[in-house]
Fold these 2 entries.
Entry 1:
Amino acid sequence: MSTILIPVDFSDCSHPLVDEAVKAAREEGAALLLLHVIQPAEVAGATQIHLKGGETCSVEDYLRRDALAQMKTYAAQLEGIEAELRVTQGEIIEEILTAAADPAISKIMMSTRGRQGVMRWLYGSVTEAIKSKTDKPVIAIRTQHKSTCLAGSCATCASGTTEARYQARAEQDG
């Protein structure tokens, strides 16, 4: 059985991407691999997070647990589809390419935010980097800005920043 790789960042736009991937998986009889990457910058600095109740745990464990909980928000969308939810840590592009190297991966479906000009220069395009570095087909799904989104556009969206990430950043900043 072939598998479609779906990198997710927990942004509001990830759910429509997963919907499209589920449609493709049903049409092709494929499985899905949803991948989330915790970046090194997210775990740099502070090594411990102070939790409510006086507990502490490592930043890495805290972010991994949060990411696994966030992955479960896609469960209803995946009903009836064989799917793996995977969380890794590393550079986003490298981790996606590592997952894509699996021979079972038939293609990659990614959202693209449509950054242009300075925003694209500053942040780059993960989708474009993946397209240029893999021999697997990459299907880019353009995100659609929602009027309910607090960001001015998809290019500046930070909806995927979870409360755990904010807390980890606060701990790192002291």
Entry 2:
Amino acid sequence: MSIDFGRMRREVDTLLAAYGIPPETLTKRYVLERIDEAVERLGQRDPSRAYSFWNEAFALLEDMELNAAAESHLFPGVDRRLRRLKGEGVHLAIATRNCQKALAKVMGGAERYFEVVLTRENSIGYKPEPTALFPILERFSLKGDHIFMIGDHPLDVIAARRASIVPIAVLTGTGKREDLVRAGAAKIFWHVNRAIDFLFPATSS
């Protein structure tokens, strides 16, 4: 799913200004965290206004994500690979900063293969914070070095590193190779299918 994060930030900044918060006064870097920071600031003066801002901000994000999801789909071959992994007993999980509706639209039912699905609505933290991945570690009772995280954005790589999970990057998203390398990717593949096949080779019958 390709989202224009620059536009998203500009639109949130416009909303911040409308609520009397100069965007440049916020200390957080990423959009979700900036929204939370603004809610906290507004809540100190007027909780109802903070709630109104929260609703408008996340409605704006959801609208952009759903528009992007409408033009996105799983890459050919991914569903078949997920089905194979599930059948082989590989534990599968998703952790995303996006909303549940957008994820469901992109996955097209493939989320049924995953035992844990973490969206921003049910996460205890946002990537790149490692807390975003802690429920996965707890659910499977595995050490981080026994888990691979496949992601296409530097935030995925950073979150995995911070949670001591092995970060695998792919170039089928918005992340650039040099940024993924800088973030600390253990290995980079040009396509998500290549990553899956390398990490979990299909056994011949």
